[in-house]
Amino acid sequence: MKPTAAEAKAMLLFLGEIDPACTNFHRLSENGYGTVYRVHHKILDRTLALKIVRSQDAEGNATNTYTSDIGGGPKDFSILLSLKHPHILEIVSIFRGIFTEYMAGGTLLDRLQNEYDKQCGAGPVRGLPEIRCRDIFYQLCQAMSYIHSQRIVHRNLKLENIFLSGDNFPFVKVAGFGLATRLADNGQGCLMLRGSLDYMSPEMLRQPPPGYDCRTDSWSAAVILIEMLLLENAYVVGRTFPETETPGFRWDDLRDRARLGENGFDLLRKLLNPDPNLRYTSAEALQHRWLVYHRPVYPNILYPQV
To answer: Which SUPFAM superfamilies match (predicted)?
Structure first.
């Protein structure tokens, strides 16, 4: 429901109190965990994204977590604060809200929906060209390889948590670290069910849970790659919890409609191996022949050693 003039004025006053240096508030999105605005920071002379969240405990003290008003567990932004990488969304500051860099291209979900609508109006849906998918996936694997080198599991890798610049061949930033966790030093895998069903690896959905590690993110990344190539869901049928059989993928569509080459098929099979002990990591994906000879659109990026 559209706010009244009085409600809109009150909201602007509230936003202005968060940081007086911010102007030109424009609401971008909203969910149970908070509302995101595009703002201009006068002192930094920079356009930022501002997420208004509840990050206080019952006594009003600041915490590293924020909660939802529609259910769901608390999300933690302390892990994101610890990460520094060209392809990870940067937290600029935390002051009565979370200020991050602003990505003009929106999310990868936005990009795929726009591309789907455009292709639907021009004939059969073909998917994103393989070369564009490969460049986005290359950047994604660079980010995930670094994240995993820090013994961090993202656990919520999906289209909505990948942000893009406004370019035709976009610069990629991974976000959505609220459900991320660090692996235990004793090598024990994670047990808690976290993330979105379509992107969960088989070991996350088994009962009783056998435990999982960073290779659960490899499965999620491969699902994202299929969705880019097809502009549609990656699976033949919907997934369920608990899951007793390995889900089927739309291999025929990848061959006949997306015309994915054999190297691409081989990498997907390795990333989607139902046995996590045999599944490729993000670092191994970067050494696969589908990616290792890729000439990135942004070739001068300095990546940290992993």
So the answer is: Protein kinase-like (PK-like) (SSF56112)
pLDDT of residue 217: 98
Helix (H, G, I), strand (E, B) or coil at 208: coil
Instruction: Identify residue 5 by its one-letter amino acid code.
Output: A
125 and 23 in a common domain: no
Rounded distance between C-alpha atoms, residue 149 and residue 6, angstroms:
50
CB 131 within 8 A of CB 77: no
* CATH code of residue 80: 3.30.200.20
Q: What is the pLDDT of residues 6-43, one digit of tens each?
A: 545 555 555 666 677 888 888 888 776 678 889 998 98
* pLDDT tens figures, 120-140: 887 788 899 999 999 999 999
- Is-contact 219 272, C-beta < 8 A? yes
For residue 251, what pLDDT is reported?
A: 97
Residues 253 and 150 in one domain: yes
Proportion of the chain above pLDDT 70, given as a percent: 85
